[in-house]
User: Fold these one by one.
Assistant:
Number 1:
Amino acid sequence: MNGVAPGRAARLTVRGVVRRFGGIAAVDGVDLVAPPGRITALIGPNGAGKSTLFDCLSGTARPDEGRVLLGGRDITRLPEHVRARLGLARTFQRIAVFPTLTVAENVRVGAERAGGGGSRGSFGYERDGLRTERALALLGLTAVAERPAAGLPTGTLRMLELARALAGAPRVLLLDEPSVGLDAAETVRLAAVLRALAADGLALLLVEHDTELVAELADAVYAMAAGRVVACGPAARVLADPRVGLTWGVAADDG
Ligand code: ADP
Ligand code: MG
């Protein structure tokens, strides 16, 4: 155990989720399972519905149909902060940090978000502090802990987002394109951290365009297109599936 991930394994289950904008289904009946201790990848071209699905899972958006279960509990109608407290954390495709807060303060926000819930004595704060420190160390951010987030390079901000998510001691972690903007060394670090988290029992679900990283990391891959899952299974099989048509892989430049 690295001390960041607690021993409370939970499975994320998605059943028949539909999310419409106007008359159009951006997510059109998705079934998916992200088991504890595994890295599950979600791939697909721009506009396939990956981020919209993540919004439905984290609570940023409500599905129009279908159900989302966390460790068997139906969380479909629960607000985002309650899901966070139950152990669901996410990072965003567009980096979202508090620019005037320091790196450590940003991470502490994550620790406090999920940390207490009920009564919180000084012990609770100490635990938050410890989790913050561990998350900073795990992501190699200790040296920049007291710097304001504003002006830090993209790679550092990506690590900061991940540290903030981990500081909340999640059971399920949703990562939307975590490798975008990372250099080669940072990508290696990211891969190592994600593997360690899965080994600790976390359920990881990541949207990722880097097919090499997907092939290297993912225990299972779901490929989406036009709101639907068009293929799922072991990485090697899905990445080679003609229905997945990896022509989009090189043109991936999402907004
Ligand atoms: P991906 O993350 O796979 O690139 P998105 O989930 O961002 O795909 O988008 C899926 C589809 O839903 C796209 O056609 C996109 O234009 C549309 N969409 C996403 N968010 C909104 C929104 N807030 N309002 C209207 N349409 C949206
Ligand atoms: Mg997206």
Number 2:
Amino acid sequence: MVKRSLIAVVAVLSLLFTSIGFAQDDLSGQLEIFSWWAGDEGTALEALLAIYSEQNPNVEVINATVTGGSGVNARAVLKTRMLGGNPPDSFQVHAGQELTGTWVVANRMADLTDLFTSEGWLEVFPQGVLDAITYEGGVYSVPVNIHRSNVLWYNPAKIEEWGIAVPTTIQEFLDVCPAIQANGVTPLVVGESWTVNHLWESVALAVLGADGWDALWAGELDPAGAEIVSVWETFGEVLACTNITSDAAGLSWQQAIDKVVGGEAAFNVMGDWAAGYMTTTLGLEPGVGYGYAQSFGTSGTFLWLSDSFGLPADAPNVDNTIAWLKVLGSVEGQNAFNTLKGSIPARTDAVDADPEAYNAYLQSAAADWGTSRLVSSLVHGTAANERFMGDFNQVMEIFLASGSASAAANAMAAVCAQSGACG
Ligand code: GAL
């Protein structure tokens, strides 16, 4: 009896291993990955695709990218494809409301809970990140990284040459602004419109504090109230120290960073994909070729976002996609990707598996991720759904055209109500 059940167990196990073995070699056909990581943003993605192709040599990978920082163009194309019943096999989507409040709520994504269980991922991703990809008990995407939004970038040699200090508060920034301008330098460079929104979220966090920021998204802070009016007023003062009325609209985020590196601008507030760009593309050393600090007024907080990929409910190549998601969630995949991208792994055990691969900036981001107060990025999908993110552009336009803090706050309250994003 014992012998018979032992034979049965062995038979089942060998069947299992064989099928796993076959799954690797046997996959064929196509895999279409959709993202906005084109051009110099593409290197880290290509490292993931290389691992995938090595493991699955018979799958033809289609790397479908739509250029445009922060996905401004890609998301529009994705929407047309998803609504038209023509989804890619997997697409880049921010963990949080961009995923759950946009695609999961509309039943467009497959539940990945079984994959998370079989891969042991429920134990290796932080709870806050798991919460951001969970909706009504199901888990819906695989986070490949953690990026930080509230970073101030500068060129250490130039800062020394100009004899200025890196501002740690908004007031310090406003105080140093005229001295920088007197050197014929832009104090703070912004680029095309989403980068202005990006600056806004760091300024808003500085004015509101982490509790106020969280309260806004929890419906506990009036979006038309005095605190938000004050955010817009302060934002206006900060904007007066930028190139918003000159060449901003024509600059990509990389071109804005180039101005800091070249000494035409003193500072830029950008997510730490800028570290990836300066290290991987420009070949600069963190702390030497470029400096970094928490954006003024936000010290101790980590405005976070996470790039993730899921499985659309009607994706054409499900098995190939599951194999892709396994690469994304693996220690090997996360380390290959993040060391190039300027982000840190979403898995808590990946950096320790290969600490030397992470440069000084990434080490500091990893340390801060563990000790800071974590708050959700608006512009990169953690805090608010796509409806709000899209409509927020109009709020910004109203502010830029009118200069009126109360008009912007009122518009924001309307957008909050329409999108249901603010609690
Ligand atoms: C963010 C994204 C980053 C980076 C950045 C600039 O939204 O999370 O990975 O791609 O846009 O395009």
